[in-house]
TrEMBL record:
Its EC number is 3.2.1.52. GO terms for cellular component: membrane. The active site is at residue 295. Residues 120-462 form the Glycoside hydrolase family 20 catalytic domain. It comes from Streptomyces bauhiniae. This is beta-N-acetylhexosaminidase. Pfam families: Glyco_hydro_20, Glyco_hydro_20b. One of its GO terms (biological process) is carbohydrate metabolic process.
């Protein structure tokens, strides 16, 4: 269809059948750069329709028709309309994304017809705010960036050995004591240099509720993660009685890696976890609640009389089997509360099948979990850990050892060659931003983009090919990120690889 539709001061919006949320989002997103009021009118030229009888669009798909004098956006569910609003933004000149008023740009979209449905229902990013706290203003900005890329899940890693950021009214010391680390390691994980500056931060319940509402208006679900039974040293610093050694006072951990200090297995600990998760569920309506579950050494349980007694009472072969028992108990609590337990999986053998798992080591762990009957969100580190450097250039910021380059991120951890029953268990994929080595919002943006754009592209459209689909569009992605003021990594031209954006296609 030739021609353009132009947004100008005469453009009005008609929202039908409960499409008001999408109309409001369109207005909110276009206002800063364009200054256009886009008022509601029964004769609007931009028509947004929620029609539950529309077939073939699922929960998140949409249809968009752009003609010279009218735009029609339709979906069966509100989330589909919100995705369509992001497409309208993407079809406009990149300046439409500017946070400041832009003069002299015609706000034109090419005419055409789009029907667009995502392959995966979980298109996520995990942000570790435990190792380095981030202000809620940045969480909102990051949510906006996810929504622009039609990602629908922000997974917040709220607690770890090095910091507890989730407010819990029943246990105030979790944030008062567990939210403060006396110092932070400088350099690689085996360094012995510290900055000698306390690192502190915690959210209020009001801030988190506000974030949840803000994200929901953009089609993004915030999934909370509370780590247990390992990666819990900040909680042990706040409440030593949760541990395995009576009378021991630990500090909030100042090193990186796997910590031997883990939660105990006495009834008081299970009660603590249930109380914490009760408050978490009160703040986060997400159907899924993540309970960590990774990297839990059994060393302390092996020498704890309480844990040994528990092992024997339960008839378990060894204390390390307490890990599956612990997660199973907490998972049952979440299920009884109407939520779905989610955890990192190294080896999901001991988990009940109603756990959804995030295999983070290798893709094969994902296949094994799917074959055992788990729903799976793929998170293999070789392609989804965005805290790894993007190249082996010594100028890249300090990160984990290894490289996750842009083509790897575009593979996005999506499985290939699995039998259909296992492939059907894959809910989607997710990029990870662990923050041992990431301190600031600018560093997060540099590591996240454009790799999250690549991962999001594949998560939405499995047929997207790196060289013929994503790479030619990369310059456009980068132009948008620049317009938004995102501190993204600029992709340098490489030998043997066509310069994105100049490739004929
Ligand atoms: C993890 O990387 N320990 C989930």
């Amino acid at each position: 269809m030739p021609g353009h539709f132009t947004f100008d001061s005469s453009t009005t919006v008609r929202a039908e059948g409960g499409a008001q949320g999408a109309a409001k989002l369109l207005r909110t997103l276009l206002a800063p750069a364009t200054g256009l009021p886009l008022p509601t009118s029964t004769t609007g030229t931009v028509v947004i329709v929620l029609d539950p009888y529309l077939r073939g669009l699922g929960t998140e798909g949409y249809g968009l028709t752009i003609a010279p004098n009218a735009v029609l956006l339709r979906a069966a569910r509100p989330a589909g309309l919100l995705n369509g609003v992001q497409t309208i933004r993407q079809l406009l000149p990149a300046e439409a994304l500017s946070p400041r008023p832009v003069a002299g740009v015609p706000w034109r979209m090419p005419c055409g017809q789009i029907t667009d449905v995502p392959r995966y229902r979980w298109r996520g990013a995990m942000l570790d705010v435990a190792r380095h706290f981030q202000p809620v203003s940045f969480l909102r900005r990051f949510t906006d960036l996810l929504a622009l890329h039609k990602m629908n899940t922000l997974h917040l890693h709220l607690t770890d050995d090095q910091g507890w950021r989730m407010p819990v009214s029943a246990y105030p010391r979790l944030t008062e004591v567990g939210g403060v680390r006396s110092r932070t390691l400088l350099g690689p994980a085996d360094s012995d240099q510290y900055d000698d500056t306390p690192h502190a931060g915690a959210y209020t319940a009001g801030q988190l509720r506000g974030l949840v509402a803000y994200a929901a208006e953009r089609g993004v679900t915030v999934v909370p993660e509370i780590e247990m039974p390992g990666h819990a040293r900040a909680a042990l610093a706040a409440y030593p009685e949760l541990g395995n050694v009576p009378g021991r006072q630990l500090d909030v951990w100042t090193r990186w890696g796997v910590c031997e200090n883990v939660l105990g297995v006495h009834d008081g600990v299970l009660e603590f976890c249930r109380t914490v998760l009760g408050e978490v569920m009160d703040v986060f309506p997400s159907p899924y609640v993540h309970i960590g579950g990774d990297e839990c050494p059994a060393t302390e349980w092996e020498s704890s009389p309480v844990a040994l007694r528990r092992t024997a009472e339960l008839g378990l072969a060894a204390p390390k089997a307490l890990h599956g028992w612990f997660l199973g108990r907490i998972g049952a609590f979440l299920l009884a509360a109407g939520r779905r337990p989610l955890c990192w999986a190294e080896d999901s053998g001991a988990l009940p099948p109603d756990f959804t798992v995030m295999p983070w080591r290798d893709t094969e762990h994902g296949l094994a979990a799917a074959r055992r009957g788990h729903d799976v969100v793929m998170a293999p580190y070789r392609s989804t850990y965005l805290d790894y450097p993007q190249s082996d250039d010594p100028g890249e910021p300090l990160g984990q050892q290894g490289v996750v380059d842009l083509p790897a991120a575009h593979r996005g951890g999506a499985p290939t060659g699995w039998e259909p029953e296992s492939a059907a268990r894959v809910l989607g994929t997710q990029g990870q931003l662990w923050s041992e080595f990431i301190r600031t919002p600018e560093e997060i943006e540099y590591l996240a983009f454009p790799r999250l754009a690549a991962l999001a592209d594949r998560a939405w459209n499995p047929a997207s090919e790196w060289s013929t689909d994503f790479l030619p569009a990369l310059r456009v992605h980068e132009t948008r990120l620049t317009a938004l003021g995102v501190a993204h990594r600029a992709t340098p031209p490489r030998r043997g690889v066509p310069v994105p954006g100049t490739t004929p296609h």
